[in-house]
């Protein structure tokens, strides 16, 4: 066993092919036993349901090297549960939770040389996904599916890592009321592609999506939930049926309350009240906690008091505690850490 020759500290968030991936096929109403494969290519019908009607869902989590040299991942059972919700909403078969977690562990073990070393700032991103693979031309779910897990080493999602970013209030919607915003379906991300290209073209790092019904409430960004810190140091996160229930956000609410003794609140957040907050961050597996320094609402700049130079003090405490738990420096709540090796 030898670590791959990769410049870990300079990785961005992009795909690097690793050696093995997990593959299981669903046919005649059942999942096969699954296998590890070296083949990163997929061949299927031109009329596969995923290609014609976007029947695909995915998950994202990370493997970390801890301070004492173990390799662990963070709450994979919650990814299994969320994927179950996603599968049900898109009429796809559920990949059983125990098998999901077991397959995550095996896939990381098979790619152990790609797990970035402790302290490098990089992690191994794990991407489980499932798609309808047989031909359908009338609009209906597929009968055959493939579930796969690949891994890829990654650095920070936003260039500059912990540097505050600038986002804009988007005129495009990401999810419809009573739609699919609460599940991790590829179609939600297809919806956001034009919006993110347009945001980048105009010099913004991300989009803040508002509730599509009234356009007055904060929802989330294309790939993360919001956390706000009030001037009296309370943690607020938007409550909505059309945002993804972020595992990072749910964990941070526990960290804020139980580890930092802060008051936390999940409630509707009006765009109008953001100007009164002290700090803002984006939280997610890829984003970890990325601080937001400025929010631009159609030319009107909302500058968070934490500024554009560094993370606000409370965001930093949350970041340090969460990553401390993930990297084994701080004791984790029962069941949060799955040891891989
Ligand atoms: N919201 C969206 C739209 C996402 O794509 C993600 C990433 O998974 C999140 C939020 C954060 O979720 P989690 O913390 O489970 O990674
Ligand atoms: C993740 O954080 O795992 C995601 O899926 C977000 C995506 C934008 C990379």
Q: What do you see in this structure?
A:
With 341 residues, the protein is an alpha+beta fold. Helix content is 22%, strand content 26%. It has helices at 49-53, 76-89, 97-110, 186-201, 247-259, 313-326; strands spanning 21-27, 30-31, 35-37, 56-58, 61-65, 71-74, 123-132, 145-154, 165-169, 206-208, 225-229, 235-238, 264-267, 279-284, 288-297, 300-303, 337-339. The strands form two sheets. Strands 1, 2, 3, 4, 5, 6, 7, 8 and 17 form a nine-stranded antiparallel β-sheet that branches. β1 and β2 form a beta hairpin. α2 crosses α3. The protein is globular, with a radius of gyration of 20 Å. The mean pLDDT is 97. 2-OXO-4-methylpentanoic acid (COI) is lined by residues 60, 223, 284-286.
Count of beta strands: 17
Percent of residues in helices comes to 10-25%
Q: Could you tell me how far the N terminus lies from the C terminus, measured between alpha carbons in angstroms?
A: 13 Å
Give the overall average pLDDT. 97
- List the ligand species: pyridoxal-5'-phosphate, 2-OXO-4-methylpentanoic acid
Radius of gyration: 20 Å
Order of helices and strands: EEEHEEEHHEEEHEEEHEEEEHE
